[in-house]
Amino acid sequence: MAIGEVDHCEVTEIHEDLIRRVNEKMPSEDLLYDLAELFKVFGDSTRIKILFALFEAEICVCDIAESLNMTQSAVSHQLRILKQAKLVKSRRDGKSVFYSLDDEHVATIINMGLEHIEE
Predict the structure, then answer these.
(1) Dist CA 74 CA 14 (whole Å)
(2) Which residue, among 105, 73, 67, has the nearest Cα to 86 in the 3D structure?
(3) Cα gap 32→63, rounded to integer Å
(4) What is the Cα 70 distance to its own chain's centre?
(5) How many Å apart are CA 99 and CA 83, to the nearest integer?
(6) pTM of the model
(7) What's the pLDDT tens digit per position in 40-57?
């Protein structure tokens, strides 16, 4: 088999019971779309860096920018995407805006991804 080829069946044999079981468990198209969109958000290393920073503490935008050697504008743009995906939340304290992970699921998703690539 050449590099990049995928094994495939040599004969066509439909396994109705397996197809039925898979189809019964398959989420709706809308849910699958939303899940794919969520994973797209994780597809940017800058956003992953921001999430890692937020693993440690609730941090204001200027501290994230300084930590990652980025402009506040660039960080704010990425935070807006993360917030729309419900991965981070914010709170205002005077003139500062502090960000944190939206919930423990965010850290779980990242940690599971890390475990997978480190195998």
Answers:
(1) 51
(2) 105
(3) 35
(4) 21
(5) 9
(6) 0.82
(7) 999 999 999 999 999 989
% of the chain exceeding 90 in pLDDT:
86
CATH of domain 28-118: 1.10.10.10
Q: Helices 45-56 and 104-118 sit at what angle, rounded to 10 degrees?
A: 120
Closest to 101 measured CA to CA, from 59, 68, 69, 54: 54
**Per-domain boundaries in the chain:** 28-118
The values of phi and psi at residue 102, to 5°, are -65, -40
Burial of 70 (0-12, 13-18, 19+ CB in 10 A): middle
Helix, strand, or coil here: 117? helix
